[in-house]
Specification:
Chains A, B: Residues 121-262 form the tRNA/rRNA methyltransferase SpoU type domain. Chains A, B: Keywords: Methyltransferase, Transferase. Chains A, B: Pfam families: SpoU_methylase. Chains A, B: This is TrmH family RNA methyltransferase. 2 copies of one chain form a homodimer. The first copy, chain A, is an alpha/beta fold. Chain A has 2 domains: 3-104, 2-Layer Sandwich (60s Ribosomal Protein L30, Chain: A), CATH 3.30.1330; 111-265, Alpha/beta knot (3-Layer(aba) Sandwich). In chain A, 34% of the residues lie in helices and 20% in strands. Chain A has 12 helices and 12 strands. Chain A has helices at 24-34, 42-50, 69-72, 84-91, 111-115, 130-142, 160-165, 169-172, 184-190, 207-211, 230-235, 253-265, and strands spanning 3-6, 36-40, 55-60, 78-81, 99-104, 120-124, 147-150, 175-177, 194-198, 205-206, 217-221, 238-241. A 7-stranded parallel sheet of chain A has the order 8-7-6-11-9-12-10, with helices on both faces. In chain A, helix 3 (69-72) links the parallel strand 3 (55-60) and strand 4. The longest helix of chain A is centred in the middle third of the chain and has 13 residues, at 130-142. The A-B interface holds A 131, 135, 138-139, 141-144, 165, 167, 242-245, 248, 250-252, 254-259, 262-263, 265-266 and B 131, 135, 138-139, 141-144, 165, 167, 242-245, 248, 250-252, 254-259, 262-263, 265-266.
Chain lengths: 267, 267
């Protein structure tokens, strides 16, 4: 059973995991250095526990304690309870969903483990927006993708906002970081995947044709601003485009991924 | 030529249009009461002017003035110039893209005007998230949709964040508010559109089948949380679903719309 700790000082050092949640750069450092991630909202907190992550602590307003009683019963971690206005001083914003929890990260699996048995894989290069990363995990899960691989500099899928937007898909989908950026796609090809890069390149074929009849496929997606790096664009087996209205070549990367996942799921 | 006005007091009442931009509820009132909308970033400011909206004023840091000189040359509106740290005190956040502008809204066109000549239309019920509304406008434009109709309570597509996410698609796509919520879909049917509601209803058919061979189509989308109202779900001509992995029925509304627009564009 978690220990309920009532807190009335927002500067209490035990609340360090929850400080300034809107300061993305600060949070990246804090979370990496302490090997933690934050879950927001009863549903996401619950899914994190169910996915086997160990809570470091909880933080919530009094009215949320009962709703999470069953979750709190499963752990010895402290549960810091404080008034909503004080919680807001700690986190820097109004926590609409009431409950927050800090979890220890687990070691990432190997690429081989993540790919074992997979038939449809998403590969994300240098996406910077956590909302997009979360939305892409969610679309991948909806359309039956088995795994997600992230380039070394892709935004963190365990960032609070990514988890929230992804509706917890980051917990149900095996994923890991690619250790080697340069040869990432040739390595996937050697492992039996056809790598299909989504791009606006001149020699790109419509996505429906690019994935037709392909067994093991890896859909490769680039960053919001500049798309894929030239290296990844050139080292993919195929280049694919989503046909759009003439003169328009602009689709948000999360929207493009949803369409590409849909088409690929029907190959 | 805009009048350059250097400002050193963040409480200057002439900056009222730009106050507390992160406070969504406050902004809704301010923007409705004054009939204004805000554009953020050089590109969006430029597109707003090109789309024929009349600037009320501009607000920017000194280093952004030159880049927008051609735009400022087209108007008599004041351009308030202040240091970035002061601008941040006005707006409540760090304005990464530097330039802001306040524009007067134009009267909305009639539904008939928006539908004239249209073959593919998006109809949004009660979406609450401005990011989703912007992303949907962008996907609609990418896949050749001719118009967007909004239920009376749908979130504002001219809200700063919607414009930004939509990459200005709200300026290039004809849109308006539906005056009548209850009979909105039967009215569209009477006007010759087949209304296709995206839903998880039991009698929904796959979207590809639902739009096959349809000439004038209106794709109907519901809110993030609860989807369509029962009235809209029942009064649509057809109910369609995006086939997903078994046991998963969760796709962000913007992702679902992108897929539905893609499929519809290929009908």
């Amino acid at each position: 059973m978690a220990t309920i700790v009532e807190v009335d000082d927002p500067a209490d050092p035990r609340l360090g995991d929850y400080r300034d949640l809107r300061d993305v750069e600060l949070r990246k450092h804090v979370e990496a250095e302490h090997g933690l991630f934050l879950a927001e909202g009863e549903k996401v907190v619950r899914r994190s526990v169910e996915a086997g992550f160990a809570p470091r602590s909880f933080l919530m307003a009094p009215r949320w304690v009962d709703g999470l009683a069953d979750v709190l019963a499963t752990t010895d971690a402290p549960c810091y309870v404080l008034e909503e206005s004080l919680a807001e001083q700690v986190t820097g914003f109004h926590v609409h969903r009431g409950a927050l929890a800090s979890f220890a990260r687990n070691p990432l699996p190997s690429v081989d483990d993540v790919l074992a048995g997979a038939r449809s894989v998403l590969v994300l290069e240098d996406l910077v927006d956590h909302t997009n990363v979360g939305a892409i995990f969610r679309s991948g899960a909806a359309f039956g993708f088995d795994a997600v691989l992230l380039a070394p500099r892709c935004a963190d899928p365990l960032y609070r906002r990514a988890i929230k937007v992804g509706m917890g898909a980051v917990f149900s989908t095996p994923w890991t970081r690619l250790p080697d950026w340069y040869d990432a796609l040739p390595t996937l090809s050697a492992a039996g995947f056809t790598t299909v890069a989504l791009t606006l390149a001149d020699d790109a074929t419509p996505i429906e044709d690019a994935v037709a009849g392909v067994d093991r496929v890896a859909l490769v997606l680039g960053s919001e601003g500049h798309g894929l790096s030239p290296r990844w664009e050139r080292s993919a087996d195929r280049r694919a485009i989503i046909p759009m209205r003439e003169g328009i070549d602009s689709l948000n990367v999360a929207a493009a991924t949803a369409v590409a996942c849909y088409v690929t799921s029907r190959r």
